[in-house]
Amino acid sequence: MKNEVYKNIYQYEIPLPNNPLKSTNTYIITSEERNLIIDTGFNIPECEEAMMNAIEELGIDLNKTDLFITHLHSDHSGLAGTLHKKGISKVYAGVIDGVMINQMTTDEYWQKFNDYEIMFDLKRDNVSFTNHPGYKYCPKEQLDFIYVKENDVINIGDYSLRVIDIPGHTPGHIGLHEENHKLLFCGDHILGKITPNITFWSFDTDYLAVYFESLKKVYAYDLEYVFTAHRFIVRDHRTRIDELMEHHRVRLNEVITIITDKKLSVRDTAAKMKWELRAKNWDEFPIPQKWFASGEAMSHLEHLVSIGKAEKSIEDKVIYYRAI
């Protein structure tokens, strides 16, 4: 149903069937000249139906509508190709994540998950990238994105939306800041109630540290509305950022305790961490959640290595960590 969360800004919940996230918040900004959709939902019929119902309810013309993708995850980018075919000509994305979205349409991109399966020690669980939501629900055709960078401005009606770089959740996560109205469309950078997944992307960068820096960046902003991509709108972003920082402080201490006096694989570390899932033990974790939990464990383990509190070793291509 139509939910105007600010003047000419509408929030719609796009359902994510059989997914713990439950839904993605899509935001649609309307004006007489052009409209802007922010994020899309999965590339599945249920999400497409919900999106088209929202477009029909608002009575907007897709030929006068643009699309902004905050980051590469399929619950945000999945319908980009579909909406492009239905009339949207401009699809905005950041350079880093936009390139990766197009790479996700290739088998080569997903084959590297076979290496992660070994490296994380997940081969013991018979996981496969074919069960990963990113693989199942991403766009299937490459897109000719309009790449945007920090401080680029998109004008929609009375709003001047400035692109900001807020990496961490993904390597090239971006958002839109409206300074005059004190608004931020932040994708998954800050979420109400739930904590954004910070995962492993490469050995070249400590992405948990990158995420901390992006949180500090947004902390300094004067904001009244933070339009998040899941759950509820955040009104006090500094309190929420403090909560997120504390969450990761506790998480890092938890991981240090787990790997103290013992050498553990990523998989075995993740299995001992506390997760808010309806599963009695690691064996009951759905395969997609084993991917996400292992990725998050890895990002914390790699951060501990980068700050000199853990060491790693490799045996038969499996990576192990121990506190020092």
Q: What can you tell me about this protein's structure?
A:
The chain is of the alpha/beta class and 324 residues long. It has one domain: Ribonuclease Z/Hydroxyacylglutathione hydrolase-like (Metallo-beta-lactamase, Chain A), CATH 3.60.15.10. Strands 1-2-3-4-5-6-7 form a seven-stranded mixed β-sheet. Strands 8-9-10-11-12 form a five-stranded mixed β-sheet, with no helix packed on it. A three-stranded antiparallel β-sheet has the order 13-15-14. The termini are far apart.
Instruction: Give the ordered list of helices and strands.
Output: EEEEHEHHEHHHEEEEEHEHEHHEE
Number of individual domains: 1
Largest sheet: 7 strands, mixed
Sequence stretches where pLDDT stays below 50 over 5 or more residues: none
Question: Given this structure, which CATH class is correct?
Answer: Alpha Beta
Mean pLDDT comes to: 96
What class, by secondary structure content? alpha/beta
Number of strands: 15
CATH homology superfamily = Ribonuclease Z/Hydroxyacylglutathione hydrolase-like
Give the percentage of residues in beta strands.
15-25%
Q: Rg, please?
A: 20 Å
Helix content bin: 25-40%
CATH architecture type: 4-Layer Sandwich
Organism: Serpentinicella alkaliphila
Domain Metallo-beta-lactamase: 23-230
Keywords: Hydrolase
Protein name: Glyoxylase-like metal-dependent hydrolase (Beta-lactamase superfamily II)
Strand and helix layout:
Elements: E1 4-6, E2 9-15, E3 23-29, E4 35-38, H1 45-58, E5 65-68, H2 74-77, H3 80-85, E6 91-94, H4 95-103, H5 107-119, H6 133-137, E7 146-148, E8 153-156, E9 159-165, E10 174-178, E11 183-187, H7 207-219, E12 225-228, H8 237-258, E13 264-265, H9 266-272, H10 287-306, E14 310-315, E15 318-323
Parallel strand pairs: 4-5, 5-6, 6-7, 11-12
Antiparallel strand pairs: 1-2, 2-3, 3-4, 8-9, 9-10, 10-11, 13-15, 14-15
